[in-house]
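Record ABC transporter domain-containing protein, 320 aa.
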Amino acid sequence: MSNSSHHNAIVLDHLTKYYVQNSQIPPAVNDITLSIKSGEVVGLLGLNGAGKTTTIKMMCGLVTPSAGNVYLNGFHVINQRRQAMQQIGVVLEGARNTYWQLTPYQNVMYFARLKGAGTTNLHQYAQTILHMLGLDTKQHQPVSDLSRGYQQKVAIACALICNPPIILLDEPTLGLDVIAGRAIKHVIKNLVEKDKKTIVITTHQLDLAEQLCNRIVIVHQGKIIVDQPTHQLLSLFKPYQYQFKIAEYISPEEYHQWPDTIITHNEYYSVLTRNTRDAQEMYTFIEHIKNKGLSLISATPIALKLEDIFFRLTTDQERI
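=>
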């Protein structure tokens, strides 16, 4: 593959990784093939041990594949390592991305020179990144003295210092409080909307993936089981549940008359929540309500979140 395949920022070609060869232990990553276009924001999701982090590490050259190939903007990660590494900035899970005894500014300058960045305007560009991430007032404090949220911002700054076109973020908000997590989300959103970066995010915070990613890839037991645009994936499962508001009170003694239905109450009405496979089943249930002489106030579809869909797919309840 040559650099002419610039429209595909990332290509994984039959990627496989065995940590223990010649054993009954299945591969951590099992024959994954995936292409990600320039400017896409992809959520790489899966349960613990699904193969997400191993895939990210093979993408950035930290783990050697047992089989298959990785290309970053056309450059082979193993055979053209120097050119391939110039295409990416990486933030790995945990605190392994920076040197804690150094300050944010020293970290950013160190990684810039490590990656071969030119010295022209480097100080100015470092200041721009530190300011963008809200680190300008913290830039001369040791990273060890900073909060977890600021430490994560330093890691992102180091990933951005050479202005790579591809960013790999492995659990970028893990362990952060709500405020710090929201700040990191804002940073990622800016990278998407203003800088048009190609971004791959692994996360267990599925609301983050739903808000930021335009494509979702779900890995289960080392294999891709879902690869869909986010809006299409969500639409496949809508409407899955409906809430029916009833004017009358339904007593607990009557609950047995409403199988597969969750019944709750408030001051003004009863609420019946149930799954519906299609529109016809919804209309049949409405007729059932009317036949019991009850007054239907409304029937409202419940939009499922990505978290609900992820749970169903990875627990083998459903497959696309």
